């Protein structure tokens, strides 16, 4: 005589297989969301760095002013505006540089969680295959724009380098500037 239907053991095995599939799908979805978020941050950081680099190329005599930029959104949540904002106003090259720095600070503050932007002279952007915040350059090193944010690993711990600093997301060489 043949038994009809499913046994309790077969049903339990099917439920376990289904549960594992659902857990795997949820984990995959979370990884995709995390990756999408990181890609959006990287895109914003690239746009901010590129815009600042282009402004610096357009105003090369003010490299000294641009080199003063070292903004951390956690340390200064509301950046102070310069005396003159050059949007639609006539201003000198130095005022334009200060206005550019303020715009870069606003972009980082608004779009990158606990972001940072730095302009420095750096002859060696990469250390061990990773970007780093420290700048090793002297007067002849290229001008570099570095933009980053405090990222997290998949387990939720901060993503930091061996010095305990979070890693820059983007670093662009501005090019030949005095």
From TrEMBL:
The keyword Oxidoreductase does not apply. The chain crosses the membrane at residues 6-28. It holds the Pfam family N_methyl. Residues 27-101 form the Type IV pilin Tt1218-like domain. Keywords: Membrane, Transmembrane, Transmembrane helix. NCBIfam families: IV_pilin_GFxxxE, type_IV_pilV. This is Type IV pilus modification protein PilV. It comes from Duganella guangzhouensis. The gene is pilV.
């Amino acid at each position: 005589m043949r038994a009809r239907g499913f046994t309790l053991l077969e049903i339990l095995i099917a439920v376990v297989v289904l549960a594992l599939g659902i857990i795997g799908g949820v984990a995959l979805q979370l990884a995709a969301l995390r990756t999408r978020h990181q890609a959006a941050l990287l895109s914003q950081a690239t746009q901010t760095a590129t815009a600042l680099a282009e402004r610096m190329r357009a105003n090369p005599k003010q490299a000294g002013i641009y080199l003063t930029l070292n903004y951390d959104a956690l340390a200064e949540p509301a950046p102070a505006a310069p005396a003159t904002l050059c949007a639609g106003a006539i201003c000198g090259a130095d005022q334009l540089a200060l206005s550019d720095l303020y715009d870069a600070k606003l972009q980082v503050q608004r779009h990158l969680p606990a972001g940072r932007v730095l302009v420095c002279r750096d002859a060696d952007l990469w250390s061990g295959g990773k970007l780093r915040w420290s700048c090793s350059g002297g007067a002849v090193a290229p001008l570099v724009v570095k933009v980053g944010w405090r990222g997290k690993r998949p387990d939720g711990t901060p993503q930091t380098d061996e010095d305990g600093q979070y890693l820059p997301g983007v670093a662009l060489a501005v090019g030949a500037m005095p």
